[in-house]
Structures are given as C-alpha cells and as structure tokens.
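Trying the structure run again after the queue cleared.
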Amino acid sequence: MYDALLFDLDGTLVDTESIALAAGVAAFAAHGHDVGTDFMHGLVGVDLPTASRLILTAMPDVNLGAVNEHWRAGFEAGVEAGLPLKPGVHELLAYSNLPLAIVTSTGRDGAHRKLALAGIAGAFAHVVTLDDVTAPKPAPDPYLLAASLLGLPPSRCLVFEDSETGAEAAYRAGCVVVQVPDVVPSLGRWAHHLAPDLLTGARMAGLI
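Done. Tokens:
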C-alpha cells in the first residue's frame, strides 16, 4: 500500500514540544513578557525564522536575541535531562520494513543531535531539515524533497505529523497524512487520518 514512511520529528517521534513550550514561557517571563498558551501553541511546528517574525509582530519591543538565548538554554537543559520517545515509536519503527525518512523544521545540527539523543538515528535513510529547503513547512517542499530522495512519488509515502503546519505540508505534497496531535489539539483539516497515537494512526492507514 505504501513504499516509504516519512516522519516529522519534534512532537511526533520525540517528546520535545512540552520542553520547548515550558522553556519558552520561562524565557519570555524572564524578559518581562507574559505569554499565553494560545500564543505559544501558534509557534508549534513553525520554523525559527517564521517564529521570530510572529513574535516580533506580537511584541515589537521584545529583545528577541535575549529571549532566544534564554529559551535555547532552557530547552537544552531540558533535552539533556532526557529526550523520551512518543508512545509507539519503537514498535512502529521495528515493525516496518519500508524505507524511513525524517522531515523536520529543525536545522540540520539540531535534528541529528535529537535523533542521536533519542537513540533512533540509525533507523532513517534520509533526514530532511530546515537547512535543506528554501520554503519550509507548510510549503510542500520538504516532503517533495524527501520523496525525491527516496525515488518515490509522494502518493506512495505515508506521513506521520503532529502539527497543522506539518500536516498541511505533507497534504499539499500529495502524501497520505496521519496526524497525531501533540500539545495543540486539531480537527485534522489536512489529515487523511486523525489519531490519538502513532500505532492507532498506523492501523487507521492500513499499515499494520
């Protein structure tokens, strides 16, 4: 039914979103800006340049450099304390004999570091990162590149995503999309299958 599986990274395979959100709220607060849950959720799944534009639009007077430095330090401390996998990751990776690839809005160095910390780096034939495309998610480019690297049409690729941004990118690329929302609820506008966890999504898509 499918010839490859493509995975988002943060919030889909590794449980980093909760760490990033907590570190972000603390960083904004430390520099005099109290931010709400809705604002932070709007940054989930968004690449760093786009997130910076959103922050500066909402808070023109913010010292973004200082906030980002504080945020990065808090996130790194959280990641070093432990980078757990999302439920079902080991089972899904072990079950599949299909080629696997990562498609993430994280930069190259950060993506490979997270994969190494999580102990799953060796599972993937390709890792497509923010550094590999000129138009990041929600543009379809990252998923089109991943399919091309695997020598496959996007329609033969099953994608697992958590965010609206990522699901839209995969859908627009022509992939089959399983969305497993993480910290931000979703109605599954861009998903073929909306699931509570990875394994349920795999079953809904007919993979297992």
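The mean pLDDT is 93. Worth checking whether this holds up in the mutant runs.
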